[in-house]
Fold each of these.
Amino acid sequence: MSQSIENDSVGIVVPQVAHFDEPLALTSGNTLANYDLVYETYGKLNSDASNAILICHALSGHQHVAGKHHADDKQVGWWDNMIGPGKPIDTNRFFVVGLNNLGGCHGSTGPSSINPETGLPYGSRFPVVTVKDWVDSQARLSDRLGITQWAAVVGGSLGGMQALMWSMSFPERIRHAVVIASAPKLSAQNIAFNDVARQAILTDPDFHNGDYYQHGVVPTRGLRLARMLGHITYLSDDGMGEKFGRLLRNEKFKYSFDVEFEIESYLRYQGDKFAGYFDANTYLLMTKALDYFDPARRFGEGNLSRALARAKASFFVAAFDSDWRFAPDRSREIVKALVDNRLPVTYADIESAHGHDAFLMKDPQYFAVMRRYMDRIYREVA
Amino acid sequence: MSQSIENDSVGIVVPQVAHFDEPLALTSGNTLANYDLVYETYGKLNSDASNAILICHALSGHQHVAGKHHADDKQVGWWDNMIGPGKPIDTNRFFVVGLNNLGGCHGSTGPSSINPETGLPYGSRFPVVTVKDWVDSQARLSDRLGITQWAAVVGGSLGGMQALMWSMSFPERIRHAVVIASAPKLSAQNIAFNDVARQAILTDPDFHNGDYYQHGVVPTRGLRLARMLGHITYLSDDGMGEKFGRLLRNEKFKYSFDVEFEIESYLRYQGDKFAGYFDANTYLLMTKALDYFDPARRFGEGNLSRALARAKASFFVAAFDSDWRFAPDRSREIVKALVDNRLPVTYADIESAHGHDAFLMKDPQYFAVMRRYMDRIYREVA
């Protein structure tokens, strides 16, 4: 029996592909001669194209933000709880766009795509891309969709960095930036975790310098470790303690290297699942985009206030108290720089036991403040 | 030119080996038929053997706690700043013993030792050992050295767990337990980090199910990753930020997967160095000993107060505020259980930017409280 589509779902969506032939100059100095961006849209663009909202994804995200791909689809989009008819980001009001970023592995041009110059997957030849490059490519997608100015650019974590970058790269094209569980730049500890994850992939004998596609193998071991490690940093110590504690997988200790504790079983499962569908080169690229993000860097002593002086948007910044990956203090750095520039900013410091992952969870307080802010955006549109 | 020996050094020390032929029954149900323990001693045992202090090592530690092995030795023992003539643990007053635990790779019987039954390294046949097993083996070493009762058993991190275990396993044989930067049991997050480290080793193609010795290889990749990851958890976010921040290795970004940030270079160096001398099987065993440690487990609902009801020692418990691996709250759990039992306890909550590693660092406040507590122990001896 086919599963029904809930009333508050955007329903069945079909991903679309936009092909771009104009070369894209990248931060690294390289150029992408041409590329595809895969995207999905939900809701209807109004006559003056003033109700468009761009959703930027985080490390392992993609264009499938809400709804299902077919009636039997058991998996809904990654932010389906937030986006749909009557939901905080209400598709009865807004035209919502999700895309897969360059370098991704869900349809947009990335390392596993065929390089037209060689007829082989890009692999190691795919250039490093930055948050700025993504925002540049997203601006081209905006042109293609006839959106001169986004009502809002919205993202959590690495997605929040893109929203922040939009406000600086294209100040005229964004009315609101919604920056959730994010940071103005990574800390040494953040970079350190990313580097361990990358080293796990880069030193996997099946990595073959990034050209594993031609060898018929995948660096599963490395990607699995990277995901296991990442997962620890997405959850809070307390949240993990509440959910797993020291629960045993079996009644008694086995005194072996097999799984003993539930938390081990959970992490290994998450690692195995992820390694089965995600591309290791994409994982490397996404972590590098995180590391390099530092819009204040070229201003005196990394002055974020000066970097944001260009911005004209209004801002909604939210952080979760148990998030130790991008703790509330990191969001407050953003808020301070916005206040320094007398830019309108609403800041929410939200209680949650879910750590960094809280930005993906349905939580009454979080959803209430999101809804209130989106209502405000809609009043300006309507 | 040979390096001089400082006045406050214990000088040149020679490791000694104690061989035991009496089988040791292990927590796992296995038995070690016979084994060696390698140890070092500093200072002189007094006539009534009342001034003996046992130093228990942590994950990657060993018997070489203080001094040098030869005049040109550039590396001093791992706690040389704490132990020596006039130092907080004063070898003019105390007879100090350091040993390498069973399962180690510095001379005590471990996975890389020759299994007398097969003539080959134990490898995968070496049994899992627990903190309790270590304490049992340390008690036998005490007998051998003629020490009926330790003036103190001292340790940081996993070493602190051994001090705590001594107070429960052999309440009559320990007057003081000095438990630094430790915890009564691992949290789910602690176990999770350990499991990622283990999975890195276990899935390294060079691991060969633990019997890599016969294959002429070493699971260097896995051990390197494990150490890199461990290192992140030993340092504090702030301390790492102060030391490395976003400092670049080169003037400009290379936009590649090479080292960009100093923190990456530092971690990879630490990983490479460690993987060059430490045994991967020992690393696995030490992390399992951490995971299994939970002396309260067999009491009603994991009641630590009931577990410590057997103890008779006086306690010194210390924690460091930036230690997020074993945060001060974990030490306070121990303190609470001791207070519940009306056992004498001194607790120090020490400010430090060095995270978990602070217990190995020379810090005025930390050394002052250690010195004061050791002075008190000495007054009882003298």
Amino acid sequence: MKSPQNSPSALLELIDALKCLPGVGPRSAQRMAYHLLQRDQTGARRLAFSLNLALDTLVRCSLCNNYSEHEVCSLCRDDERDRSKLCVVEMPADLLMMEQARCHQGLYYVLQGRLSPLDGIGPKDIALEQLLKRAQDGVVEEVILATNYTAEGEATAYYIAEMLKRQQIGVTRIARGLPVGGELEHVDSGTLAQAVYERKPV
Amino acid sequence: MKSPQNSPSALLELIDALKCLPGVGPRSAQRMAYHLLQRDQTGARRLAFSLNLALDTLVRCSLCNNYSEHEVCSLCRDDERDRSKLCVVEMPADLLMMEQARCHQGLYYVLQGRLSPLDGIGPKDIALEQLLKRAQDGVVEEVILATNYTAEGEATAYYIAEMLKRQQIGVTRIARGLPVGGELEHVDSGTLAQAVYERKPV
């Protein structure tokens, strides 16, 4: 939707700025701008404040590469975590899922991305060198690869495994198979075939 | 998705603040926050600036009630517009559509809402008194009601028409019927029935 010249420039500027949000096009941006101005000026002011606060205070944790307000994040500083196990995930959201599942008592390393040659993202564009250094701290005994089971996640896991094995660091990959509670009738055939292929002795 | 306690508070605060945007829930807010921090810090800073700028500079035009950076907006100040015709629309977006259609050379009045008893929006919650005063400036000869053809838009038009007719101000309503290029086969039956009911002599 084109806006006529007589729209105030601060409004046009706000609509344009909202388009930086993922999944927000011109129409949504316009709807959001009017919503904020008409119904939620408090929310708008708070959003502006929070954006600046996050940009000003968040840094990458020097150990796990996740967002943190300190040089080393609170999770990496937690004395109760098992420092011999390092779980590698693609994104901070994956770390949150792991924590919710309460299945890992060790530490994490967040790649903040994945290898994706088609998008021009190579080994130098994600923090792999820093991971190699991190895994060689003399305390880490096992690196658990928990990247996604997508093509990119698989390639990333393979690349990291090769990199770490060259340095005699133990590497494991989270299992693939039927979901818990999954029924053969309802699972996709690719997952089922892989579950049969990776069957284990009982 | 719950966030564990060890997420930095500035990040949690940003995710929470993003939820003030219409149609944005916890998951989208999280995705937006990570996107801004990882890929578009410039965009995030600009968004914060634009929000504050819009909140600080935009006021309602004293003539048309639309957003403006001046007490009277540029459209209302335009000498080439026909000041005898006043078109009433619900929202600023409707005014933009009218301008794009280039079908109205007069001025506008933006209600910034519609009557909606179910949502508790009565005559006092939209700027109807100000409209009545505006229409009685001695120059306006015709008020063109261009509210939506929804239940609320219709009720709003009816209420405004009654209010203005009591003051002997000429009121018209934009036509309802088949869309331009519309085929009987593809139009909804409500629209078709209304088009037959409102048929005109040729």
